[in-house]
Structure formats: C-alpha cells, structure tokens
C-alpha cells in the first residue's frame, strides 16, 4: 500500500541531491509520453531511495563555516534529540574542519525532526543544509576536492569568509594572474624609466 | 483578487462541469476529506464548494457524507480526537444541506459518553476532551444559516455541558503556567473549557453573531439566484455514526488546557479578549494548523501570516499596523493585530504544560520562518512578547522560564544576535538570584554556546561586558595541576602525560597508588583524591574538542567505572571534576555528563545529588539560579523517564518482549530519583537546609534567604509535576494493557465474528494538481 501523499510538501524527505535522476535522458517524439515516463521514473527512483532511508538516523550537514565547532553543532542539534555520534568533515590534507559533518541520532524520528526543524535555519550565522544519509563510514569524513576540502570550495566564485574566501582553484588561478601582472608591471616600470 | 464566494463557485463549477469523469469524482471526495484534516483553516471554504456543487450534483454530498461518517466512526474508535473534531467541524459547516437535526444527534450521543466517563472518575480526561469538541463544533453549526433554527438545540446541549465544563479539572493545578508568589486561588488561570462555555453562552445571548467566522456560502444580494439555488438544494441525511460504548484516550496524552496570552496586559486590545468567543475559535483553528503542519514550517508560517484571509473580513486590523497606531482606530473597527494573534498562538504552545504536541524546536522554527516571511510585521510583535515574558518571568513556572530562555537565545542566533539590551540595563544592578538577572545571565550564556564569546560581546552594550568573563575566550580550559600550589600537581601532570601517550595500565596504577597513599597520610579521602586527579587528567587530555574527550573517556571507561563504583563520594567527585573543569563552557560539561550516564559510570542519583546538595550547598543555594544546574538535573530526569516510557511501550506492544521485572526495576529507580529530588528541594524550599541556616543572618527572613527559598519552591513544582505526569502515564499504560488483554480474549472467544474497521479513505495518492486548485 502506498502512503497517502500530503496536500503539503514534506521537509523530511530526502533532497533532490539524493534523488539525482539517472543522467541518461531518453528522447521521445511525443512530449507527453516523455514527461509521463520521466515522472514515473523519478517517482520510482524516489520510492527506492526512501525505502533505503526509511530507518536512517544519520544526517549529512552542509554549508557549515570552517570555524564552527563540534560544541556549537551539539548545542543546536541536541534540540531534536540526543546525539549518538558527531563526525566532523575534515580537509583530507590539513585535517582541519572543511565545512560539513555527519550527525547521528539514536532514532529515525529525531533525524526526521532535524530535517524539519533545523535544516535551512542558521548555525553560527549561516544557513545550514541537512540531508538524510545512509550512515557514516570511515573515510567519508574527508573532503573530496582536489586540494583536500569539499569540491564546492574549489571553484566557488563568491568570497565566503567562513569557508576560506574564494574557491581554492579560483584563488590559485587569480594568484597566478596577479603574479603575471606584477611581473608585467615591473617590466613596464623598467621601460618607462 | 476575486471574492471568496466567487472562488468557491469557480471550483465547484469546474468540478460539476466534469462530473462524468468518475476518477475525478472519487478524487474530489477524498481530497476534500483529506484537506479537512490537513489544512483545517480551509474547512469553511471546502464546505462552501460542496454546498455550491450540491445545487447541480446533489449526489456528490451523499458520496461525501458516507465516507465522512465512516471516518468519524473510525477516528472515534482510535481515539484520534483532533481528527474527530476536524471532521465534525466540516460536517457542521455542511449543516445547511443536512436533513433533520444534522450534526446535533452525533454531538448528543458523544455527550452521553462524556457523562459516563466523568461520572466514573473525576480524573477522566477523555470526557473533558469530548465536551471541548462539542463546544467547538456548535459555533460552526450556528454560522451556517439562520441561528434561530438551531438556537434551542444549542441551548439544550450547552445546558448539559455546563456541569462538566464548569468544574475545574483535578490535574489543572499541575499545568498552570504561572507560579505566583503569594498565590491565591482567584488568580488561577481559567480552563479553556469553562472559558469556552461562558463565551458561547454570551454569544447565544447575542443571537449567535459569531462575527469572526467566514461564511463563504453567503452570496451578495445581486447573486440572489445563486443563493437561493444553494438554500433550496437537496438536503441529505447524515449516515448514522456508531459510537462505541467505551471510548479510548488514543495515542496522544490528554490534559486539561488553559488559555494563555502574551498580549493580555495592554492598554489597547491587540488580540481578541477572553470574553470574546473569537479568542477561542481563532486560537483553536490556528493551533490545529500549527500542530498538524509540523512537516513544513514554511507553510505553517505562511498560513499564520495569511490568517486574516481565513476569517471574516474586518475581524482584524490591517496587516502590519504598528501597535502605537492601534489607538487611532475608531470603533467599531477591529484593533486585533493579525501578527499578534499568530505569535500568541505559537507561544501558547511553547508554554504549554506538560508538553506541546511537537518538539519545542518546531515552534522556534515556525517563529523564525514567520519572522523571515514578514519581518516588519512579526518582529515588533515578538519584541512585545519578549518584554511581556521578561517582565513576568519571576511569576512563571520555572520550566516555562527556561523554555523562554532557550527560545530567546535560539531565535536571536537566527537574526544576528540583535536585541535591544539597553532597555534591561537597570536590571544588571539586581543580585544574581533575582529571576530577571538570572535570565539575562542564562540567556547570554546560551547565546555563547550557539556562537562564541567574542561574537556575543560585540552584540552587548558596555554594562553587560562584565557578564562575559575573559576566560570564556579560551577554547580549552587550563589544567589546574599546571599550578604547583594545587595538591597532587605533580601526580596530575604525570597522569596526563601517561594518558597522552596511552601508557599501559600498570604505570597508571602506580600513580594512583602514589596519590592514594599520600592522601591517607594527609587524612583526606583517598578515593576522592585519586578520582579527581584521574578524571581531571582525562578531561585535560581530551580538551581539544568533544570528540577528543569522548575518545579519551572511551579509552578509560573501565577505570572510570571502577572509580564510580568505589564509593558515593568518588562518584560524586566525577561530576564535580567534569563541571569544575568545564565551568567556563558548561554546555560541554553537560554533554560529557550525559555520556557518562550512558556508560553507567554515573547514576542519575549521583548527578542529582551533586547538583541539589553538593553544588547548591557549597553556594548556599545560589546554584539553584543557574541555568546549567537546572539543565543538568532536567536532562537527567528526562533520560530516566524516557527510559521508563520506552520499556512500557515495549511491554505493551503486541509482541511484548520486555518482562515485568525490568519494568518494575526501572519504575522503582525512577520513583526513588523523584523522591531524592523532592527531598533535597523541599529543604531548600522551606529554608530548612543546613547551609541556609548556616548562612542565615538571623531570623531567616533576609532577602537572600527568601530568594533561595523561592528558587527551591519553583524547582520543586517542576519536578513534582514531572513525577505526577509519569505516574499518570503509568496508570494509563496499565489501563491500556488491560484493555488490549480483554480485547484479545474477546477476539479469541468470538473468533471470526469481529468487525474489521473500514480501510482508510483516500488510499490512492491524490493528484497534486487537484490539491493546488483548492489551495
């Protein structure tokens, strides 16, 4: 039996990130047919993922500041229930916090409540993101970006003070540009004199 | 924007125009019934759609009523009383198209059950709940058409309900939100029920004007044709609803309710006064929506901001009217601020005893979202609520004071920690035992726990700076054994270095023996001394972060357990060392104690004893005014009671695995914990504590002594209530177990002959599109 769908969207469902539909996009001549198929596939996919997460007690927490401490996370997340375990996300190379963590509760209900009441609110003055997770496994605490942190911090174009300023790849690129400019300017200076 | 009667007509026509679509017909019925319990603010509008559709396709009403009756029956059987209320509210809105007396016979039969229950026991809560439902359904019937038609019926019913509604409930004293000094009986908050009864009575005397309720089925004079079509449409019989002889309390614990408002002491009325039935009707409708839509706080907040759309026009002042401008509004225009009404409703849940339906943090999140959606309208209303609560904090129940503090700090953390602290500057002169000063200290500390000291200092005016000690800037506390003047300094440092390099047990044993023999020489408790050195060293080694300390405890948990088991004094010393080491960041200390309880290194009794006897004793009672001490005891009690409840639920489940012995043991532990708490607090509350007498300046009447006594009394009330509520839970659970047993026996003897309840309606997923039409 299918669970009756609510007339209001629920905040305690896995996010679109978890439900990323397969990247294969079939072509249809008939648009309606395609839409119906896509929808059906997406729905099926969603059902499968929800099935896998139906007892989840762990949350992935994102968009933290690099400076947010475990104590602050405990303080906020305990409002939904006792925390069983907290694993900070670390820069693979420096072993310093890199802006995400896993929070594990004792019960599935506490994890759902956290999705509803804490996801999308502020911690350390940043809007944080929560997502149901299948559970922490060793190794997942490390950033998977090229320079050790999270991938999103490699190419970020906005300046985010809480997450190390500009994206690291971009910052490195800018630094090289500045270097070239400086050399060029020195050269110009020399010529003018 | 179209007026709502046109909107309802358009939906009704869209539906009746497509009547031949059988799937649509079924979906329509299911969706209407689903909306009635999921978005109850829309119920009158749903009813209007149905009433209009009745003009063209009367069959739809029969289809709908059949399912509705089944649902009411099912929900009564399950004890889902809110759903019963919401379906009856919907039925009441349809009274205009019902045969005979419509919904009244159902209410009358329900009442007879309530009478039976109340006669059987004065502590019954189901009967009270039923009467509340009856009283809240009557106005929706009376708003459907000509009130004269039903006035006699309503009067007859209300004459009967008065006996139950007027009687204060046995449990009411427990859930009273105020705990006044020198309280007298007359100040007791009125129960929701007696209030409602009085309000309805005066509404009856007023010809049932019910001016706040929307009547979207009424068309303007120019649409006389449409109006008469509705009025003269076919009438339908409400299918009979079978109410079982014994009704059940259902999954949600039932308690009597009182009406509270944070806007009650104003010179201009910004919310409906308790004399008006509007206060109860609007509050009830909002609370249903707030508690039901817990799974999407954004929608809850949106419905609260839009609440003026769901009641009759002119019920409220224009949105975002500043409070100061309410004075300029000429009567009879309304001065009720929709924002105040919304905020008031959420606060009534935050301050609901014993507990609101959802976790407290849900109500925090609703206020946060409302503030984000309409900051200019909501923020000033919150500001006035905060001032009211701050002013009244000393007279509030202590548990509620702390809920206020917790919400306040959490809310500020979502809005850049901005608050007009300057207006409380004068209160900084008060001593730390004054409830308002204690609030300021506690709230700032909670802010720091969500942020960090330097940040919070920046948000506070100069006079507050002294409240944040410079040590608060340190992430890790200092190691007291770094100082040679401290006894066992050398051994402490040695212990820390052994723990750091994860030295073998034998080396640690050697240091412990050294400490113990020295302690014996100095004639101090050897176990306590060695416990202190060991625990403090573990804490120091793990001081970098919570995961470090948890790992350090994990590594030493066997030894810690041995220390804990050695003697009461040693066990108490563990708590003392943790709270002492982390005194600058009490949040961390509380977290560590929680883990030590999980490991059974500490017992709940030790924690409570440390807080209420050791710590409170050393400070001559001052510690009773500290947030972290309360939090420590409260969390410990919640842990213990939660454990008992878990065991009970397991024991009551059909495949009950838990044996009665476990339950008996857990219950016994819980009871002795409550006894210990009450004993310790009683002596503070009466001023008979040794330390009180010791510190007394004479006749026991100094300001300070009185303050400490008052804290003792406030604490005592909280934990007496907790204890009473757990006892009530155990009684209910035992009853439920008996009921199930009887049911199982009945099933066994009459195998096969048992009626299976109808499958829930609307099993098929309803189309999101059709939801959008009504939404």
From TrEMBL, chain A:
UniProt domain RRM: residue ranges: 57-135
Domain of life: Eukaryota
Keywords: mRNA processing, mRNA splicing, Nucleus, RNA-binding
Location relative to the cell: Nucleus
Gene Ontology biological process: mRNA cis splicing, via spliceosome
GO cellular component: nuclear cap binding complex; nucleus
Alphabetized GO MF terms: RNA cap binding
Biased composition range(s): Basic and acidic residues: 29-45, 171-193
InterPro entries associated with the record: NCBP2, NCBP2_RRM, Nucleotide-bd_a/b_plait_sf, RBD_domain_sf, RRM_dom
Spans annotated as Disordered: 1-51, 142-193
Family: Belongs to the RRM NCBP2 family.
Name listed for the protein in its UniProt record: Nuclear cap-binding protein subunit 2
Species of provenance: Podospora fimiseda
TrEMBL record, chain B:
Disordered: annotated span: 744-775
GO BP field: mRNA export from nucleus; nuclear-transcribed mRNA catabolic process, nonsense-mediated decay
Domain of life where this protein originates: Eukaryota
InterPro entries named in the record: ARM-type_fold, CBP80, MIF4G-like_typ-1, MIF4G-like_typ-2
GO molecular function, one term: mRNA binding
Gene Ontology annotations for the cellular component aspect, listed alphabetically: nuclear cap binding complex; nucleus
Domain MIF4G-like type stretches: 272-462, 479-727
Listed name of the protein: MIF4G like-domain-containing protein
Organism, scientific name: Podospora fimiseda
């Amino acid at each position: 039996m299918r669970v009756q769908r609510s007339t209001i969207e629920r905040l305690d469902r896995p996010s679109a990130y978890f439900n990323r539909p397969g990247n294969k996009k079939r072509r249809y001549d008939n648009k309606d047919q395609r839409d119906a198929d896509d929808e059906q596939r997406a729905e099926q996919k969603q059902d499968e993922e929800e099935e896998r997460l139906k007892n989840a007690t762990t949350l992935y927490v994102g968009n933290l500041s690099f400076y947010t401490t475990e104590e602050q996370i405990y303080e906020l997340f305990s409002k939904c229930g006792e925390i069983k375990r907290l694993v900070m996300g670390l820069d693979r190379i420096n072993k310093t916090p890199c802006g995400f963590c896993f929070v594990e509760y004792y019960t599935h209900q506490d994890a759902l409540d956290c999705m509803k009441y804490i996801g999308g609110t502020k911690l350390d003055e940043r809007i944080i993101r929560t997502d149901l997770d299948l559970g922490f496994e060793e190794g997942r605490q490390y950033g998977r970006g090229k320079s050790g942190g999270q991938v999103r911090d490699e190419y970020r174009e906005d300046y985010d003070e809480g997450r190390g300023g500009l994206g690291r790849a971009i910052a490195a690129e800018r630094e090289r540009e500045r270097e070239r400019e400086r050399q060029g300017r020195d050269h110009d200076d020399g010529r003018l004199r | 924007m179209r007026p709502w009667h046109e909107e309802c007509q358009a939906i009704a026509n869209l539906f009746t125009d497509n009547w031949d679509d059988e799937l649509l017909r079924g979906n329509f019925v299911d969706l209407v019934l689903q909306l009635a319990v999921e978005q109850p603010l829309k119920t009158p509008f749903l009813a209007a759609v149905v009433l209009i559709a009745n003009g063209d396709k009367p069959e739809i009403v029969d289809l709908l009523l059949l399912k509705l009756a089944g649902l009411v029956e099912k929900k009564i059987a399950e004890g889902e009383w809110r759903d019963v209320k919401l379906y009856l509210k919907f039925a009441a809105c349809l009274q205009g198209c019902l045969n005979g007396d419509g919904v009244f016979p159902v209410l009358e039969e329900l009442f007879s059950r309530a009478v039976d229950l109340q006669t059987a026991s004065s502590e019954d809560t189901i009967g009270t709940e039923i009467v509340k439902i009856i009283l809240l359904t009557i106005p929706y019937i009376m708003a459907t058409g000509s009130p004269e038609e039903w006035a006699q019926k309503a009067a007859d019913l209300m004459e009967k309900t008065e006996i139950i509604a007027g009687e204060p409930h046995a449990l009411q004293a427990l859930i009273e939100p105020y705990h006044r000094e020198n309280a007298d009986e007359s100040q007791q908050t009125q129960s929701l029920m007696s209030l409602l009864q009085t309000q309805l009575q005066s509404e009856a005397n007023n010809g049932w004007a019910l001016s706040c309720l929307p009547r979207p089925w009424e068309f303007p004079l120019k649409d006389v044709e449409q109006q008469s079509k509705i009025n003269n449409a076919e009438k339908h019989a409400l299918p009979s609803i079978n109410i079982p002889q014994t009704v059940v309390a259902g999954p949600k614990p039932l308690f009597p309710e009182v009406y509270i408002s944070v806007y009650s002491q104003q010179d201009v009325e910004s919310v409906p006064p308790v004399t008006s039935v509007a206060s109860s009707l609007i509050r009830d409708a909002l609370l249903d929506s707030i508690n039901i839509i817990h799974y999407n706080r954004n929608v809850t907040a949106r419905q609260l901001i839009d609440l003026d759309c769901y009641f009759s026009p002119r019920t409220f002042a224009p949105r975002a009217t500043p409070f100061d401008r309410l004075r300029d509004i000429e009567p009879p225009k309304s001065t009720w601020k929709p924002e105040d009404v919304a905020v008031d409703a959420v606060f009534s849940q935050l301050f609901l005893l014993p507990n609101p339906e959802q976790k407290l943090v849900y109500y925090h999140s609703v206020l946060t979202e409302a503030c984000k959606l309409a900051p200019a309208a909501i923020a000033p209303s919150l500001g006035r609520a905060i001032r009211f609560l701050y002013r009244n904090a000393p007279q509030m129940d202590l548990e509620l004071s702390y809920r206020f503090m917790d919400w306040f700090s959490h809310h500020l953390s979502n809005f850049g920690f901005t608050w007009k602290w300057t207006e409380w500057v004068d209160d900084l002169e008060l001593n730390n035992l004054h409830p308002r000063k204690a609030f300021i200290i506690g709230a700032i500390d909670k802010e720091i726990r969500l942020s960090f000291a330097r940040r919070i200092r920046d948000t506070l005016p100069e006079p507050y700076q002294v409240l944040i000690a410079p040590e608060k800037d340190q992430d890790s506390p200092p190691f007291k054994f770094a100082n040679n003047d401290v006894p066992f300094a050398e051994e402490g440092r040695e212990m820390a270095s052994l723990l750091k390099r994860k030295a073998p047990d034998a080396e640690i044993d050697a240091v412990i023996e050294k400490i113990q023999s020295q302690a014996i020489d100095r004639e101090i408790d050897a176990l306590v001394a060695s416990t202190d050195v060991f625990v403090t060293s573990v804490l120091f080694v793990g001081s970098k972060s919570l995961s470090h300390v948890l790992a350090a405890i994990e590594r030493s948990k066997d030894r810690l357990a041995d220390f804990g088991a050695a003697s009461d004094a040693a066990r108490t010393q563990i708590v003392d060392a943790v709270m002492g080491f982390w005194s600058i960041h009490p949040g961390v200390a509380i977290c560590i104690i929680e883990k030590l309880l999980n490991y059974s290194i500490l017992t709940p009794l030790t924690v409570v004893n440390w807080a209420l006897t050791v710590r409170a004793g050393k400070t001559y009672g001052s510690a009773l005014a500290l947030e972290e001490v309360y939090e420590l005891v409260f969390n410990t009690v919640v842990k213990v009671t939660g454990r008992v409840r878990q065991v009970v639920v397991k024991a009551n489940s059909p495949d009950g695995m838990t044996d009665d012995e476990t339950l008996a043991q857990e219950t016994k532990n819980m009871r002795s914990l409550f006894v210990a708490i009450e004993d310790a607090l009683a002596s503070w509350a009466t001023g008979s504590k040794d330390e009180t007498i010791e510190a007394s300046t004479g006749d026991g009447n100094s300001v300070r002594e009185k303050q400490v006594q008052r804290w003792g009394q406030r604490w005592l009330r909280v934990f007496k209530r907790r204890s009473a509520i757990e006892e009530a839970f155990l009684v209910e659970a035992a009853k439920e177990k008996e009921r199930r047993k009887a049911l199982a026996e009945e099933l066994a003897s009459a195998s096969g002959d048992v009626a299976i309840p109808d499958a829930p309606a609307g099993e098929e997923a309803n189309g999101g599109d059709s939801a959008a039409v009504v939404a």
